Amino acid sequence: MEKSKKNAPSLQELNLVDRFLFDEVMEDSGTHQDILSIIFGRDISILDEPETEKEIRISSLARSIRLDVFAIDENQDIYDTEMQKVRKPDLAKRSRYYQGIIDTGILRPGVLDYNLLNNTYIILIMTFDLFGYGKYCYTFKPVCQEVPECILEDGATRIFLNTRGKNEDEVSAELVEFLHYVENTTDQTAQRSSSERIHRIHKRVKEVRQNEKAGVKYMLAWEEKYYDREEAREEGREEGRETNTMESIRNLMETLKLTAEQAMAALKVPAEDQQKYLDML
User: Fold this and answer.
1) Tens-place pLDDT, residues 216-226
2) Helix pair 196-210, 29-40: axis angle to 10 deg
3) Sequence-distant (≥ 6) Cβ neighbours of residue 14 within 8 angstroms
4) Cα–chain-centroid distance for residue 33?
């Protein structure tokens, strides 16, 4: 317990790229509205409180998804906003899967008109350039290869934001300032911004950082992950020991023509473990 507390960064040290702070901050509808408004360059009004860590499961046989922050605006447009600080090779297809699962849950049984599907926006905020073109923002909509200006207006949009873009002249200054703030969520970064939205977001960040309940929740969440990691490591070490023991038993059986029981006796395998290895053999 003491080890985990000692090693855990404090809540005050977290940036918005850290999922715990991001989720806590985004639970406030006003803050979520400000962030979406910065991303889209227009005012967006959220209908209800955003849902964080929203799980969607369409079948016990299909993989469920857990959305970082889910919200619906006054036009019934759906927004899933994800924070991603670790580069993974499957992010593009993960966004495709998320899109499909969200769509599957929209229409009620018996509805025949697919035009009733809501417009959806999958937004990934990343601390790296997934595509390598130096852009702060990559927006994807399906287009016709033969006629590039022909866009398939199916209402699905996927947006990948990069906090380390280089094309300041192609996006709004407010978006650039926000993406820098996401990675460096400090008083200094907020003060350098002229955006009232960013100032309001930072006010919300400070409220979360100073909230005692949020602090306790963070430490409990961190410790749970810590012990999960330790348990996984121990399971890995145990599996490694079992594998080595099994190889040794087989080697003795093959080279010295021993029985399994004789091999385990030679290796001093505990009596309570011997049946396990016999089952594995």
Assistant:
1) 888 877 766 65
2) 140
3) 20, 21, 185, 209, 218
4) 20
- 132 token code pair: 């390598």
Count how many Cα atoms sit within 13 Å of the Cα of residue 141 in the half-sphere of its side chain. 13
> How far is CA 251 from each of CA 247, 261, 267, rounded to the nearest angstrom?
6, 13, 11
- How far is residue 154's CA from residue 100's CA, in Å, rounded to a whole number? 13
CB 65 within 8 A of CB 100: no
Q: Which residue has the tokens 């650039």?
A: 176
What is the distance between the alpha carbons of residues 124 and 137, in angstroms, rounded to a whole number?
A: 10
* Cα distance between residue 211 and residue 7, in whole Å: 21
* DSSP helix/strand/coil, 66: strand
- Judged by DSSP in three states, 117 sits in coil
CA angle 202, 135, 123 (to 5 degrees): 55
Q: Tens of pLDDT along 103-146?
A: 888 888 888 888 998 999 999 999 999 999 999 999 999 999 99
List Cα–Cα distances, 248 to 143, 256, 264, 267, 269, in angstroms: 59, 12, 9, 8, 11
The 8-class DSSP code of residue 9 comes to: P
